[in-house]
Amino acid sequence: YGSSLYVNVSQLKWLPEQFYLFPFKAVECLFSEAVKPTFSDTVRLTFKQLVLNKRLRATVYDRDNNHICVLLKCKTDEGTVNVYRYLRAHEHKSKNGRMLDDGAIVQCLHNTIFNTSNSSYQSSICNKSMNTSISLTLPILSPPSPIKLTRDQIEMRRKEIKRIYKEPLDENNNTMLSSESNGNLSM
């Protein structure tokens, strides 16, 4: 829902049925956190081993020409991981020039993506190497056209965003629910 942190339940829309019937099981995409494709063959092999016979969850963040930029998540024995950060951690070298073992990688990934506790500290460890991307060569399926908003709707969203930034935060950095929210749920 754009740059809004919350949405009123009445604004939710059902996904049209035709979107459940995509003709492909995969689409060409880029990692949203990455900049250029420089993954080694070893990391590409790690990617294939990680995702083989698994269902992945992709959150679409942007569109770059004909590519969709996504945050890709995968369930592993250690829990749900951000695929891009998992691959970067495997490629990251230790001070001795050796690859990190799986235990060190899991320690680096623990609480980084999907658990809010200690996320700012852990993210700073793993974000240092995020300057590349992987392009998956799969059948291309263009995403649906972006939703067109009226000027009034855009202005209303801008006001909501400004109000959210001004609202007080609780100790967990969550926006507190105020009487001005008019039945909206804040996160």
Write structural notes for this entry.
InterPro entries: SNase_OB-fold_sf (IPR035437). The longest helix has 16 residues, at 151-166. The chain has helices at 41-51, 83-91, 102-109, 119-126, 151-166, and strands spanning 29-31, 57-64, 67-76, 79-82. The model is unreliable at 94-145 and 169-187 (pLDDT under 50). With 187 residues, the protein is of the alpha+beta class. α1 (41-51) packs across α2 (83-91). The chain folds into 2 domains: 26-129, Beta Barrel (OB fold (Dihydrolipoamide Acetyltransferase, E2P)), CATH 2.40.50; 151-181, no CATH class. The two termini are 13 Å apart. Strands 1, 2, 3 and 4 form a 4-stranded mixed beta sheet that branches.
Produce the secondary structure layout.
Blueprint: E1 29-31, H1 41-51, E2 57-64, E3 67-76, E4 79-82, H2 83-91, H3 102-109, H4 119-126, H5 151-166
Parallel strand pairs: 1-3
Antiparallel strand pairs: 2-3, 3-4
Helix pairs in contact: 1-2, 2-3
InterPro entries: SNase_OB-fold_sf
Task: Label this structure with key terms.
single chain; 187 residues; alpha+beta; OB fold (Dihydrolipoamide Acetyltransferase, E2P); 2 domains; 4 strands; elongated; SNase_OB-fold_sf
